[in-house]
Amino acid sequence: MTQAISAPSTSSIDSSPPRIGYRIAMPEPNNHLFELTLTIANWDNDTLDLKLPVWTPGSYLIREYARLLQDFQAFGADGLPLVSEKRSKNHWQVHTPDRDQRSHLSIHYRLFANDLTVRTNHLDRTHGFIVGASTFSGFLASNISRFSSKSSPPILSGNWLHPSNRSTSQPKTPVTFISLPPTSTP
Predict the structure, then answer these.
(1) Least buried of 11, 69, 109, 147, by fewest C-beta within 10 Å?
(2) Which pTM value belongs to this model?
């Protein structure tokens, strides 16, 4: 599981709980790099701690997914860089002391994906395969109101299998997947 850890805060940007979204781009599939942007709205703490897991549920071999992450950058609401540091092999900390800056955070990183297994990411000119545990660093907490993921198809000749309708036509627009929190059952 990915997770976000924060110190408690007494201030409030907005009464809404934090919302996150991911944008996954594949501008040059032959370089085997997925480009990810994590956006977080309504963050209300002075720090944001992001972690990638070291293993995948169901396959408990230590995989060290963070070794494939490169070019980690964090930006505040005004687009200016925020101070961030790598705290351990799979843990990045972003400092967000300014309330205005943390109303909308953007985290950018790239993932090398050239291992063709069911437990790891793979990207080339023929296909893209994403494993959540090795891809999504960030927020999985009980107070999240909405999680979304948007995938921008690469510009390629040939056909890719479109994930939402299983057709082989080239997607013309980004594909969006949305996961809402589970509803409680009596």
Answers:
(1) 11
(2) 0.73
